[in-house]
Automatic annotation (TrEMBL):
Entry-linked InterPro entries: GntR_C, TF_FadR/GntR_C, Tscrpt_reg_HTH_GntR, WH-like_DNA-bd_sf, WH_DNA-bd_sf
Name of this chain's protein: FadR family transcriptional regulator
HTH gntR-type domain span: 7-75
CDD domains in the record: WHTH_GntR (cd07377)
GO molecular function, one term: DNA binding
PANTHER family in the record: TRANSCRIPTIONAL REGULATOR, GNTR FAMILY, UXU OPERON TRANSCRIPTIONAL REGULATOR
Pfam families: FCD, GntR
Entry keywords, A to Z: DNA-binding, Transcription, Transcription regulation
Transcription regulation as UniProt keyword: yes
């Protein structure tokens, strides 16, 4: 079962305020809604909102002037922060990908030797749903994640599965809006099929070849954003 990552309310609110600044195309000196208005906008308490404002003020994104209001302080800082966030996420995904190559690669290798008929049927059903969702233009992130978990399960190594499960909070970053684009890795869909075709007939060499093609494609997409 995936672990739920804890996100503090003030962190969510600070992100929503930044989104508001960006969406409204506010400039330095522009006034933000009042505290009362923002508590209604974001559906949070005053304490959480004030904590978010303190955080944004410390980052030089806003300036709170008592008796006057809340103002955008430095748009350049805000844009820089957004750029830094993208660069940090890109670096994180690339580092995580290195671990995926090692751990999930071993899972693919073992699955190609140990997968049984029941597991083959499960993956086939998963891929069928994947295809339906993709053709309908729906979000495929969670069914993509499910596919990889089925392969890990098919490896038949409980220690490896436990290690990957403990890694799942980080692993899921690949499937939850990576770099702000849920369709970022859609090009890897055909590789899921070819990799599974090799696993199903216990062709380890081709299964690994397709797995590494997938990892190479992921790496290229991350670097291109």
């Amino acid at each position: 079962m995936p672990k739920i990552q804890k996100i503090l309310v003030h962190e969510q609110v600070s992100q929503e305020i930044q989104n508001y600044i960006q969406e409204k195309e506010l400039s330095e000196g522009d006034k933000l809604p009042s505290v009362e208005e923002m508590t209604q906008m974001f559906g949070v308490g005053r304490s959480s909102l004030r904590e978010a404002l303190r955080y944004l003020e410390a980052m030089d994104i806003i300036q709170v002037e008592n008796g006057k209001g809340i103002f955008v302080r430095d748009v350049n800082t805000f844009r820089f922060m957004g750029k830094v966030k993208v660069e940090q996420e890109r670096a994180f995904l690339l580092h995580t990908l290195e671990v995926r190559r090692a751990l999930e690669g071993q899972a693919v290798r073992l699955a190609s030797k140990r997968i049984n008929d029941k597991q083959i049927a499960e993956v086939e059903a998963c891929l069928a749903e994947y295809r339906e969702r993709k053709e309908a233009g729906k979000d495929t992130s969670q069914i993509d994640l499910a596919f990889h978990r089925y392969i890990i399960k098919a490896a038949g190594n409980p220690v490896l599965e436990t290690v990957l499960d403990s890694f799942s909070g980080l692993y899921e970053k690949f499937f939850n809006d990576p770099l702000g684009d849920k369709q970022l890795f859609d090009e890897t869909y055909p590789m899921h099929i070819t990799m599974f075709d090799a696993i199903r007939i216990h062709d380890t060499e081709n299964a690994m070849e397709e797995f590494y093609k997938m990892m190479d494609c992921l790496e290229a997409k991350i670097k291109s954003v």
